[in-house]
Amino acid sequence: MRNIALVAGGPKELIPPLNEYNQDDVTWVGIDRGAVYLMEDGIPISYAFGDFDSITSSEMDSISKTKQRLKIFPPEKDQTDTELALEWAIEQNPTSIRIFGATGGRIDHMLANIQLLMKGLSKRTEIEIIDCQNQLTLHTPGTYTIKEHKEWKYISFIPVSYEVRGITLENFKYPLSNCHIKIGSTLCISNELIYEQGTFSFYEGILLMVRSRD
């Protein structure tokens, strides 16, 4: 599997049009109510994960009649449906994983879903959370090139580890050179590129990058 898209059951109004991401090399996975969202958008489901406690019996019947492979779990378990689906996706060694429907609604689920990005670091799997207004990715030390995008104008960097050291931002409206920031800092919130592309780099810690629309 080259690319995997996971659709969780967050508020549908926060999920971008999924057909814009529907390409031949994408394997679509519905997580609980996310499977209903995929059916509503006419996107073929390859797998469906969850305890399905947030859908009706008629919706479950519709899911069961599709050609997907069901992985049903009991409601009482030690991991969320999204974590179980993501762990499975990482085991497939895909090029990338995109997660939709993981923000909004219950803030405990949203915060947990953001932390799930950590699971891709050890295998260097590219994992991205996407909603209508934001794109979230997690980064380990290194140098990264980022291109300007008119729709995703604002770029923020948030420390996830206790401290991130050596942050350098080039071709940004608010540049930095070898800056150290600790968790809880808002120094790197709401920056912008001033050229077609720029770079960000750091040598210690873990950094969350958020690209946002107006």
How would you describe the overall organization of this protein?
The chain is α/β, with parallel strands linked by helices and 214 residues long. The chain folds into two domains: 3-132, Rossmann fold (3-Layer(aba) Sandwich), CATH 3.40.50; 138-212, Rossmann fold. 17% of the residues lie in helices and 35% in strands. The protein has four helices and 13 strands. The strands form two sheets. The protein has a nine-stranded mixed sheet, with helices on both faces. It has a four-stranded antiparallel sheet with strand order 8-12-10-11, with no helix packed on it. The radius of gyration is 18 Å and the shape is elongated. The mean pLDDT is 90. Pfam families: TPK_B1_binding (PF04265), TPK_catalytic (PF04263). Residues 142-208 form the Thiamin pyrophosphokinase thiamin-binding domain.
**Biggest sheet: strands side by side, in what order?**
4-3-2-1-5-6-7-13-9
Number of helices: 4
The CATH architecture of the largest domain is: 3-Layer(aba) Sandwich
* Fraction of helical residues: 10-25%
Protein name: Thiamine diphosphokinase
Pfam family, one: TPK_B1_binding
Organism: Metabacillus malikii
GO molecular function: thiamine diphosphokinase activity
Task: Looking at this protein, list some descriptive labels.
alpha/beta; 13 strands; Rossmann fold; 9-stranded mixed beta sheet; about 210 residues; 4 helices; single chain
Task: Describe the protein's topology.
Elements: E1 3-7, E2 26-31, H1 34-40, E3 47-50, H2 57-65, E4 69-72, H3 81-91, E5 96-100, H4 107-115, E6 126-130, E7 134-139, E8 142-147, E9 154-159, E10 163-170, E11 176-182, E12 197-202, E13 207-212
Parallel strand pairs: 1-2, 1-5, 2-3, 3-4, 5-6
Antiparallel strand pairs: 6-7, 7-13, 8-12, 9-13, 10-11, 10-12
